[in-house]
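Milestone 3.1: sequence recovery, worked example.
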């Protein structure tokens, strides 16, 4: 079977994360989105682990469901909008965590059980593991990989090309970090498969596209996700699918919409060519730092000018959260009642947000909202005009 999965989110115990990132809320919103499997995030935080234990029950080996007794899954979508009725308990969880290693490289870890999370955290040297959902660990990437694999887990770099805390911020080769091949590589919002497959050393590594969500609403949760072919909903089957390169679809931002796609100033967001930025010694005339964009960083390391896709690599499909598309089309805020009512109507009619964005025939959407259908078509046909993001500022869609 093929499942939709988002494997990188955070709990309220990570910095700058919504207090609504609770198991019941995540489960409910994930089903509205159309996700089948979602990471718990922050699986090494002691208080979050207690919440996971009290809020879920094992459904299959290494996979967890919301406890039926926790009827709080039917939380209200937004303050003034009633939520559609769905079966939130069908959403499954898998244990995940993100940690920062001693080189400030962020590592995404997928674990086989709650028990393994408790055992591994005891072996992680850290001053803030009891306080921070994404703890700083005094180990390098290779040491962390060895530990995670001792417990049957999976590991790979988070948002691999971004300029602050990524593997390619710190190293020119992935093997300088791990001394081995990671189980996967997470692309991040500012890159896609066509960019990453210009790098020769990534030809044998599956790519993941995850949201890194800090809030549970569907314009954050699953804004990037994966289609994975698995034999059954167990951790071992999931692991076999990753090891067997059964990621059969990546969905996410047009990378130009990511906030670090181009090279730019982190203070005024002015864009620079990489040649100009280096001539200025990475300092903007306004005084701000210039950060190298993902596009230029990949070009630094690329062997080829065009992507060389290995046979197993799936298509990368560009999407944007449905509420953001409605917001752009009508010039209203994403969380306004106006936008949320349209969003709710489409999700109720077609089953999930992912169905609307990807699967529902455009003529069907057009019967409900013709303006919206035109923009969704532009996404599907990759014909959008975009002002690229840089320096921490998201890119923008330019409508005619």
């Amino acid at each position: 079977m093929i499942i939709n999965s988002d494997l990188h989110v955070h709990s309220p115990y990570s910095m700058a994360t919504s207090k609504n990132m609770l198991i019941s809320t995540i489960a409910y919103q994930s089903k509205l989105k159309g996700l089948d499997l979602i990471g718990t995030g922050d699986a090494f935080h002691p208080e979050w682990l207690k919440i996971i234990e009290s809020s879920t029950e094992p459904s299959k080996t290494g996979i967890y469901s919301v406890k039926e007794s926790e009827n709080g899954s039917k939380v209200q979508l937004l303050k003034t909008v009633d939520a559609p009725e769905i079966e939130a308990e069908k959403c499954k969880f898998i244990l995940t965590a993100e940690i920062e290693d001693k080189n400030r490289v962020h590592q995404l870890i997928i674990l086989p059980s709650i028990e393994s999370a408790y055992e591994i955290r005891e072996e992680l040297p850290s001053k803030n593991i009891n306080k921070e959902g994404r703890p700083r660990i005094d180990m390098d990437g290779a040491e962390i990989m060895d530990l995670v694999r001792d417990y049957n887990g999976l590991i790979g770099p988070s948002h691999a090309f971004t300029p602050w805390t990524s593997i390619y911020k710190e190293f020119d080769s992935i093997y300088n970090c791990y001394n081995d091949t990671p189980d996967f590589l997470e692309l991040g919002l500012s890159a896609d498969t066509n960019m990453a497959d210009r790098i020769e050393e990534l030809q044998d590594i599956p790519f993941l596209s995850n949201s890194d969500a800090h809030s549970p609403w569907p314009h954050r949760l699953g804004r990037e996700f994966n289609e994975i072919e698995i034999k059954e909903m167990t951790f071992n089957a999931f692991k076999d699918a990753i090891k067997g390169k059964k990621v059969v679809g990546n969905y996410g931002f047009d990378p130009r919409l990511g906030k670090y796609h181009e090279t730019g100033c982190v203070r005024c967001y002015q864009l620079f060519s990489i040649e100009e930025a280096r001539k200025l010694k990475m300092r903007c005339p306004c005084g701000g730092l210039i950060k190298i964009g993902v596009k230029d960083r990949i070009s630094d390391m690329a062997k080829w000018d065009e992507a060389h896709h290995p046979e197993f690599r799936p298509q990368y499909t560009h999407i944007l959260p449905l509420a953001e598309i409605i917001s752009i089309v009508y010039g209203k805020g994403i969380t306004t009642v106006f936008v949320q009512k349209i969003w709710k109507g489409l999700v109720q009619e077609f089953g999930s947000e992912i169905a609307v964005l990807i699967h529902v025939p455009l003529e069907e959407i057009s019967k409900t909202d013709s303006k919206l259908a035109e923009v969704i078509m532009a996404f599907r046909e990759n014909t959008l005009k975009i002002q690229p993001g840089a320096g921490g500022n998201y890119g923008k869609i330019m409508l005619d």
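The first strand starts at residue 2 and ends at 6. The CA atoms of residues 5 and 311 lie 22 Å apart.
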